From TrEMBL:
It is found in: Cytoplasm. One of its GO terms (biological process) is methylation. Transmembrane segments: none annotated. This enzyme catalyzes only one turnover and therefore is not strictly catalytic. According to one definition, an enzyme is a biocatalyst that acts repeatedly and over many reaction cycles. Belongs to the MGMT family. It comes from Alteromonas halophila. This is Methylated-DNA--protein-cysteine methyltransferase. InterPro entries: MethylDNA_cys_MeTrfase_AS (IPR001497), MethylDNA_cys_MeTrfase_DNA-bd (IPR014048), MethylDNA_cys_MeTrfase_DNAb (IPR036217), MethylG_MeTrfase_N (IPR008332), MGMT (IPR023546), MGMT_N_sf (IPR036631), WH-like_DNA-bd_sf (IPR036388). Involved in the cellular defense against the biological effects of O6-methylguanine (O6-MeG) and O4-methylthymine (O4-MeT) in DNA. Repairs the methylated nucleobase in DNA by stoichiometrically transferring the methyl group to a cysteine residue in the enzyme. This is a suicide reaction: the enzyme is irreversibly inactivated.
Amino acid sequence: MHYYQRLMTPCGELTVRASDKGLTSVAFDDTSETPARPSGLTDEACSQLSDYFARRRTRFSLPLDAGGTPFQQQVWAALTTIGYGTTVSYGAVAQQLSNANAVRAVGMANSKNPIAIIVPCHRVIGANGTLTGYAGGLSRKAFLLRHEGVDI
């Protein structure tokens, strides 16, 4: 079974999708899937995301079912270790994976992250401190970082 529901946030509408195993996607998108087919998991994800935007939550506790290649899954797991209000470079993520030469591959995996905010790819920035690509748009990335108290 696949479940989904929409959540309005301060930086736009999110669609939260889940399987019976875990979240499959949290995305800023304009596709309108009606009627919604919520589940306990999509309800809980929306609740935790609402708490995040209300500054009552800095970590998420939700099962994930994102798919992806083994390398992408390694990168996404590494992203979940980046603390609230902090940023790291793509190179730092590559080093965390014990593969300093994989900077570009980390960037590609980061760009394919299907679970925005909960798997915090917005916390990865360029080595020179600049904001780089974000599937939700750079303005949303900047909003999320400022929301977390990052001076950008």
